[in-house]
């Protein structure tokens, strides 16, 4: 069983999508052991509480590392997490941290490209296609190896809000698919046990 810690900062719709898929039996072999928010007012914490999942507010890297270890975290999922992880966390969880970004990386990503800004930049760039990307997290911002991407059409007359809503629906689908892909490729646990056992 893969222990997932989900890191959040906002509304938590990507977290909710994972909770729903696990509860529906569409994402087997994983359990969300905790939700860690970077801010007290993250609605994602309400979603965790409703699902009976432990929720914590953690702002300091040392505490983050100890909370991750305290729940035997195998995989970290950043779902609307708005802080950049310190190198100490990246080192401790190399190729074990997954992020969802609302564009087709390497376009419209990196420093300053988050939330609505991403979608406004796509519209300003007169793109016909946008999308979402699941990728590993490394020391850079949105620079880690891509795990999965899916295109989303930009419709005439789209605003940042209408495009964001369309992309978000795809995020909710590919985050779980990306986790499945990572689990299939993860090296076996110590002692040769498969992750999904
Ligand atoms: C999403 O667009 C996600 O791609 C970005 O943060 C936004 C909010 O996600 N990283 P959520 O509703 O808090 O899951």
Automatic annotation (TrEMBL):
UniProt organism field: Hominibacterium faecale
- Drop me one GO molecular function for this one: phosphoribosylglycinamide formyltransferase activity
Q: Which residues bind N(1)-(5-phospho-beta-D-ribosyl)glycinamide?
A: 12-14
Broad class of enzyme this protein falls into:
transferase
Protein name per its UniProtKB record? Phosphoribosylglycinamide formyltransferase
Question: Does the record bear Glycoprotein in its keywords?
Answer: no
Which residues are recorded as binding (6R)-10-formyltetrahydrofolate?
99
Name of the coding gene: purN
Note the site residues: Raises pKa of active site His.
142
């Amino acid at each position: 069983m893969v222990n997932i810690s989900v890191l959040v900062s906002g509304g938590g719709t990507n977290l909710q999508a994972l909770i729903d898929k696990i509860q529906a039996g569409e994402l087997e072999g994983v359990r969300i052991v905790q939700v860690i928010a970077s801010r007290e007012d993250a609605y994602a914490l309400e979603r965790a509480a409703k699902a009976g999942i432990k929720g914590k507010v953690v702002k300091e890297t040392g505490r983050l590392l100890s909370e991750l270890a305290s729940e035997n975290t195998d995989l970290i999922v950043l779902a609307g997490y708005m802080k950049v992880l310190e190198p100490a966390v990246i080192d401790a969880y190399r190729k074990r941290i997954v992020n969802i970004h609302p564009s087709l990386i390497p376009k419209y990503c990196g420093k300053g490209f988050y939330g609505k800004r991403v979608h406004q930049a796509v519209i300003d760039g007169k793109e016909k296609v946008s999308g979402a990307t699941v990728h590993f997290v490394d020391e850079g911002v949105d620079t880690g190896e891509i795990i999965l991407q899916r295109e989303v059409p930009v419709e005439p007359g789209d605003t940042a809000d209408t495009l964001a809503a369309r992309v978000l629906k795809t995020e909710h689908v590919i985050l779980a698919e990306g986790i499945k892909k990572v689990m299939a490729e993860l090296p076996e646990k110590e002692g040769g046990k498969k992750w999904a056992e």
